[in-house]
Structures are given as structure tokens and as C-alpha cells.
Design a protein that fits this description.
The protein is mainly alpha-helical. It is 61% helix and 4% strand.
């Protein structure tokens, strides 16, 4: 628990906030401020007492940007309803976590009354109102439950979080992406990395444009009002849901390759190995999706960086030591496969939904650009190295997942495959949790009620069952990933950051900056259209091959 001195300090700060709030109110009323009726007529004005969906986004995404203390709770209220032992659920005052105050809800953006208050957030809690005073600070300080003052993430910790967000299952498909595009695909990979790094910087500038902006949906509302917040949130949640589908397809492909004879026949109904393992995986991860505090899983899933390195080293070992060699090649340029390749690369750099949380968690927020630059550099080198190794090992026979090409008799191959199989078990619940919490916000009953807990379990079960349905109906890992990368990741990583930046800053944007943003938006739309069309065509063609 915090010391009495800490409690006295925050009490004084709360009293000052109350005085400041009263002064602001009197000044506004004395200067002809907008009336309540005017506020109600403004579609972009959000009252502090009328929460806007989604409220749970920040807490659920903070899991990806902070090292958590392990703790599990099955039936406790969600992250946005009750404090827990994990650092994640402590309320923030700007960049400060304060013990003993109500849990943070995502700030709600208020309609503009004057230029200086364009992005001001109304608060009824005097302590939470202090967020406006701290949002511009360059450091983060956390006060834990035991009263200890803990600084935010260091540069190294922020770098680890950044790499962990970017380095995922996309590394398995980079050889297939390079085979699809030809050798020029390496140039596309580095180019997309630079563009995504640039748009990640734009997100920071959007966050710093006004007080209270903390998440991607906040940026969307600042740029386009309530409809912007809702549309961006839906896109982000759809991307997360689609990633869960990919996890199940991944498990089905790799486990069926390990156990090719596996199948199930019940009453004349036959289930092949891929479907069986996808269904089994869904049943195994279901209890983890029911958990309300996933801090233990977030602690384990941080090993995603290590998993990616282990897989890359295993592939190198198979090629260099086990005798497969690096003798294959491909064409320099393959136009027909280029859109699919770009979609796959887009999936690799789909970390923008978490970048605002990484920025907020840094001890020194001035390190954000360096964290992003080093993260993109390391991950791009990893992706390029894996792509070149896989393609030169297997050439035109390169599969959508490099693990499916590795000879099964080698130990390094087994290590790579089992590392790939285990990793999604720690990530599935973390990826599905934001989607589940957003839907639970819409429930008409309070979070403390038994009806809410029962409805929560039903919602999470339905989400998992629906993902297995999609995974069984569309079991084409590479083309599904290309679709996600083209239709969703390109929108989140290229189009929206530039569009929000232009909308927020307007005429303040220089001609060069505006030209760059418009160019990136055009590139994003071209990649979206061509990549989506090619990936859908590939899915249809795969169905025809099966039939």
C-alpha cells in the first residue's frame, strides 16, 4: 500500500484539481461558454458521464507493452472494472499509475469549444482530471500497490516490447512471400518497413497533439469524431479476430504434418487431421480465454521474440549443417505474385495498434523514435534473412509456412516446428481478449453481477467457436494472412495514421509532409485493392484445387 505521505500528496493534488475545475467552470460561464444544449447538439462532443465505446481498449492492449507480474483470476471483473495485482489494471494519471483510485477508463474526447481545448477530456474524478497536466511529460512513473515508485519501461524494455509486437508468425511466411514476388520482394520488404516506421512516428505526433490522447481509437476520434473512433476500433478488433483464426490454421497445418495419420471418424462422419488439430487447439485454449486477468500469459507470451529467433536459427541449422543447402533461386520479378507478397509483408508490420501503448509506457518518451527505429531494423533483418534462407533452400517448392518444408528427420526441424506449435497457445487468449472485452461493454448488466459473468463466458466461448468455424472453412494459411495484411493491416498501418495526422493538424501540416502522407495513403489503397483481390482469388483457386 502507498505510504501516508504519498496519500497526502495525491489528496492535495486532487484538491487542487477540484479548485482548478471550479475556476475553469466559472471562467467558462463568465465568458459566454457553450450551453448544455449546444453540447448535446454537437455530434463530436462526449460528456464525461456518457462513455463511448470502446472503453476497455487501452487496458487490453497495455498487455503487449508492459512486462506484467504473473497473476490469474477466472471470475473477477474485467480489466476495465476492477483493480488487480497486475500493473496493467492500476489507474493512470497521465503517465502515472496511482494506487487506490478508481480504475482508468479510456479518455473520452470532447467537442471543441475553442482552439486550446479542442481535444480536452472532461473528468468527474479530480485525480483522473490531472491527466491533462501530465500527458505532455517525457517520462512515466508508476506507484505500485506496495507503495514503491517504479519508473516506466526503459529503452531496452521498450525495445523488447516493440520487437515482440512486430516479430510474430509472419516470419514463417516471408520465404513464401519472396517466392511469390521474386527477388525484388526484398526491396519491397525494406520499403514497407520504412513506410511503416514513418507512420508509427505520425501516431506519436497525433498522440502529442492534445491532452488525453492515449490510444489508436482516441486518435480516430480526435481526427474524425465519434464515427472515426468506432470505425477504427472495429477495424482493429477485426484484425485481432482474424489473427486468432490464423493461429488455429497454423496449428492444424503443423500438427497434421507432425502426425500425418491422425484423423477421426464418428458415425460415418470423417474429420481429417488439419481440422481435428484446429478443433483440438480451440478446445485447449478456450479455458485461457475465460480468464479475466491474463498477466501470466502476457509474461509467457513475451517469449515470442525468443521463439522467432529459435525458428530462424533452426532453419539456418537445417540449411547449413544438416545438408539441405542454399542452392535454389527464383525469378527477379514476378508480377502475378506481387500483390500476395505485399499483403504478407503488410501482416509482418501490423503492430501500429500497440505503438501508442508502447509510447505511453516508456520511462523516457523521447526514446520512442529510437525504440521504433531499432525494432523495425531488427525485425526487418530477421524477416529478410528468413526469406532469403527459406527461398534458397526450397525454391519454387516453398510452402506458405517454412516449417512445412523442413525435413522431419532432423532435430532442428523438430525444434522449429514445436516452437511454432507452442507459441500460439500463449498468444491466442491475449489476442482475443480485447475483442471479448469490447463486446462485454455492451452488456446491459453490471460487471459485478452473476449474469454479466455468465454472459461473458458465453461471449468468449462463442468467439472461440466462431474462429474454429472460419479456420475450417478457409484453411489456407498463406492466402488468409495475405488477406489480413492487405485489407486490414494496410489500413491500420498505412492509410489511417496519415489520414488521422492530416485531419488533426490540417493547415499546420507543411507541403512536404502533406505530400508524403498523401503518397503513403495512395500506396496503401493500391496495396489494399490489389492484395485483397489477389488473396481472395488465391483462396477461390485453392478451393477449386481441393474439389
Amino acid at each position: 500500500m502507498p505510504s501516508q505521505q504519498d496519500a497526502h500528496y495525491w489528496a492535495e493534488m486532487g484538491a487542487e484539481a477540484n479548485d482548478s475545475e471550479e475556476d475553469d467552470t466559472s471562467v467558462a460561464s463568465g465568458s459566454g461558454g457553450s450551453s448544455d444544449d449546444d453540447e448535446e447538439d454537437d455530434p463530436n462532443n462526449v460528456s464525461g458521464s456518457v462513455p463511448m465505446w470502446p472503453q476497455s481498449y487501452r487496458q487490453s492492449m497495455d498487455i503487449y507493452s508492459a512486462l506484467q507480474s504473473p497473476s490469474i483470476s477466472l471470475f473477477s471483473p474485467g480489466l476495465h472494472h476492477r483493480l488487480s495485482a497486475s500493473q496493467l489494471s492500476l489507474p493512470r494519471v497521465g503517465s502515472v499509475l496511482v494506487s487506490g483510485t478508481p480504475p482508468l477508463r479510456i479518455p473520452l474526447l470532447q467537442g471543441s469549444k475553442k482552439d486550446s481545448e479542442e481535444f480536452a477530456l472532461p473528468y468527474t474524478d479530480p485525480v483522473r482530471k490531472l491527466e491533462d497536466q501530465f500527458v505532455k511529460t517525457d517520462s512515466a512513473i508508476y506507484v505500485a500497490d506496495d507503495g514503491k515508485v517504479v519508473l516506466g519501461s526503459s529503452f531496452v524494455q521498450g525495445l523488447f516490447n516493440g520487437v515482440n509486437v512486430l516479430a510474430g508468425v509472419g516470419v514463417l511466411t516471408t520465404p513464401f512471400a519472396l517466392m511469390q514476388a521474386g527477388w525484388i520482394g526484398v526491396f519491397y520488404l525494406f520499403s514497407l518497413s520504412l513506410i511503416c516506421f514513418y507512420t508509427g512516428i505520425l501516431l506519436r505526433r497525433c498522440l502529442e497533439s492534445g491532452p488525453g490522447l492515449a490510444t489508436y481509437p482516441d486518435i480516430g476520434q480526435a481526427a474524425f469524431g465519434r464515427i472515426g473512433r468506432i470505425i477504427i476500433s472495429i477495424i482493429l478488433y477485426t484484425e485481432l479476430y482474424a489473427c486468432c483464426v490464423e493461429f488455429l490454421i497454423l496449428e492444424g497445418d503443423n500438427l497434421s504434418a507432425l502426425f500425418p495419420a491422425a484423423h477421426l471418424s464418428i458415425g460415418g462422419f470423417h474429420i481429417d487431421g488439419k481440422t481435428l488439430f484446429s478443433l483440438t487447439t480451440a478446445l485447449l485454449v478456450l479455458p485461457t480465454v475465460w480468464l479475466r486477468d491474463l498477466s501470466l500469459l502476457s509474461y509467457v507470451s513475451a517469449g515470442g521474440v525468443i521463439a522467432s529467433i529459435v525458428v530462424a536459427c533452426s532453419v539456418l541449422w537445417v540449411g547449413a549443417v544438416d545438408g539441405v543447402g542454399f542452392h535454389e533461386t527464383t525469378a527477379f520479378f514476378n508480377l502475378s505474385g506481387l500483390p500476395v507478397s505485399i499483403g504478407l509483408y503488410g501482416f509482418c508490420y501490423s503492430g501500429h495498434a500497440v505503438f501508442p501503448n508502447i509510447y505511453s509506457s516508456l520511462r523516457n518518451r523521447n526514446d520512442y523514435n529510437k525504440v521504433l527505429a531499432v525494432s523495425f531494423t531488427l525485425c526487418t533483418l530477421l524477416y529478410a534473412g528468413m526469406a532469403v534462407m527459406g527461398l534458397t533452400m526450397f525454391g519454387a517448392a516453398t510452402a506458405s509456412q517454412i516449417t512445412l518444408n523442413l525435413p522431419k528427420q532432423f532435430l532442428a526441424s523438430k525444434i522449429a516446428v514445436w516452437t511454432t506449435v507452442v507459441n500460439p497457445f500463449t498468444k491466442f487468449a491475449l489476442t482475443m481478449m480485447p475483442v471479448a472485452l469490447s463486446l462485454e461493454e455492451l452488456l446491459p448488466v453490471g460487471p459485478e453481477s452473476a449474469k454479466h459473468r455468465s454472459a461473458s463466458i458465453l461471449i468468449r466461448t462463442a468467439l472461440v467457436m466462431s474462429t474454429i468455424g472460419v479456420a475450417v472453412l478457409v484453411p489456407f494459411f498463406g492466402f488468409v494472412m495475405a488477406f489480413i495484411g492487405s485489407a486490414l493491416s494496410m489500413t491500420v498501418s498505412l492509410i489511417l495514421p496519415c489520414a488521422c495526422y492530416l485531419a488533426i493538424f490540417g493547415k499546420k501540416v507543411s507541403l512536404l509532409q502533406a505530400s508524403l502522407c498523401v503518397t503513403v495513403i495512395i500506396i496503401g489503397f493500391v496495396c489494399l485493392i490489389l492484395g485483397t483481390y489477389s488473396s481472395v482469388s488465391g483462396i477461390i483457386a485453392s478451393y477449386h484445387n481441393i474439389l
